[in-house]
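Quick one: structure for this chain?
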Amino acid sequence: MDSDERQICDYLKSWPHHFVSAREIARRAGGKRRFREEPQWSNTVLPRLLEQGLIETDGLGHYRLKLTRKESKKAKRWVSPHLRRILERSGKDFAEVFDIPDDDST
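Got it. Here's what it folds into:
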């Protein structure tokens, strides 16, 4: 993986569940100066990353890192062990509680 590919992957890590446009990737991943000099620099790198299977597209020119199985099937965690003990001691059933997806997976 060369430096351009690494820059794009590092930028896309900050948006794990969102698709980002190629123009925004070129603007943010390479820096302001590089975008001014060569605004389309990411258009040669993104197809290589797609071919390698590191990123995925929505078909509209937006890209994101592919989620690994570990990230997509994340284990559920309690907020704190103290709350877990308190709720388990209450004797109530929390099986019907809504699962809120975690958008902040870093």
